[in-house]
TrEMBL record:
Residues 101-246 form the Bacterial transcriptional activator domain. Keywords: DNA-binding, Transcription, Transcription regulation. It comes from the Bacteria. The keyword Transcription applies. It comes from Thermocatellispora tengchongensis. GO terms for molecular function: DNA binding. Gene3D superfamilies: P-loop containing nucleotide triphosphate hydrolases (3.40.50.300), Tetratricopeptide repeat domain (1.25.40.10), Winged helix-like DNA-binding domain superfamily/Winged helix DNA-binding domain (1.10.10.10). Residues 25-94 form the OmpR/PhoB-type domain. This is DNA-binding SARP family transcriptional activator.
Amino acid sequence: MNEAVSSVLYCSVLGPLEVRVAGRKAVIGAPKQRLLLTIMLCRVNMVVPSAQLIDALWGEFPPRTARKNLQVYVSSLRKIVGDRIDFQGWGYCFHAQPDELDLLRFHALARAGRNAIRSGDLTTAAEFLGEAIQIWAEQPLAEFAHVPLIAGEAERFTEQFLSVYEDWVELEIELGRHVEALAGLDLVAARFPARERIAAAKMTALVRCGRTAEALAHFQTVRRHLAVEMGIDPSRVLQDLHQEILAGGVRRGRGGSVRVAVPRPGRLQGPANQLPRDIADFVGREAEMRRIVTDPAAVTVITGELGIGKTALAMRAAHTISPAFPDGALMVTLRRPGGEPRPAAEMQRELLEAAGLDVTGVHDDALGSLWRSWLSGRSVLLVLDDAPDESAVRPLLPGASASKVLVTSRSRLSGLEAVDRVGLRELSGAEGIEFLGKMIGAERVRRDLDAVMALFDRYGLSPLTLRLLGGRFARLPRVPLSRLADRLARAECVLDEFAAGDVSLRERFEQHYNRPSWAHRAAFRALGALHGPPFEHDELVAALHGGGTPAERVIEAFLEANILSVPDHEVAAHSMLYTMSPLAHRYAAELRAAGR
């Protein structure tokens, strides 16, 4: 690949902001106009909400004319960059190709290099990665270091550069070019003394150049820095490398600690997109999607009751934002098929193996450190599905990195700090109609709209409920929906009717609510004695009284677990209403009647 730019437009953000048109530098003098362009380039090919742009440009107290001024700035920028900026109803998007923006070119070269690693062509991989790091000019966008949004993006770009640099320098050493690798390693290692992969690469290169004493001295420098600045010891990987040097030097090839530090042919140090498929008939959740896509939080928890569509939303959001994470996308389920939580070490081992690391023989106690070390400096999208509690999530979260984590859980996971929580409610009636229409045909839904609305009232509007209803109706294409609705209403055990293939609503409820260790099983059964939902606060307290735990505390536990929720419009000074899934309430009534 060569450096020639095929487009008449070329923009740079991996250093000072610069725009060139037909090879000539464009003058963008107005500070707010430069800032606006910078934000859109940092989020290239993604919609940036107008509210976020206004906040970045004017802070907490924007002028009344802010939105109009924003339109004027965009219009001025279009005179320079053409029609690459468009408005999509709620924000602006700057469209560009890899030959038009250095950031995209950097990502394209990094992907090409890592694909070459996967195919085992290490020489080509080193060429691509080396070309990628040459694009890096200096500290990105230093003139906007005072703008939190840009500062965060610049930090993310730096992490991505370091991740690519680490892969490249390890390849150079693996290919026997340790003398050449050392030329730049001194500067990078001094600038980023906490980067243990860079420290390991420098120590390895020094030993292979016959400079063992300098390699040991560098380990002590890194050890002191970590102790003083962070209060921690070097990772087990770096300590093992130190011991190997003391024992006689680092072996060439792929053995010992170097086996971890240097990529192997056919294995990728950074996974490709390993997300499951997106769901084609996804409906609604526009506000939640915008929030997840645009929120800068490193961890987003998507929470809601059983069957509310948490995983579907996480997958839709993950597929949308995955291009912004050049080191790949991974997903792990935090429960076993029967619903039991998985041990942290088991999940860490699965993730490390998915990332291309050979962890055979690595002790369970060392996996957490190895996982965090691998994540450090990488930009990975991680989806943690069906988290049982906070303790299951914490061992998998990255430390300081440019990665993003999406967590789905039936619980709010209120104990997790510094996360953004997106709570899901049932779909609206219009969204439910659209959902069923995609499954069984919009015309069939319209013909029996009264029956459809009655089903919504009776069984709720969770996506799982609608999917199971739609699957049942699709098997009987010539039977009117009103007749099928009457049949459901007459069913002796209506929960048994909500099943399709290997998905059964009753089995989902049993896995969730019949856990022997669950402290509130009796209180859940007590909900089945109530008429409703919704429930008034006083009747709920009366029903839960006398169970050994104060009723108010049980209500809080049910709210935390999304068994109960408070409707947004149902809070008044004299009363508070609670609601729950109609089918979950039927299940509670069944358990109570059976004395289980």
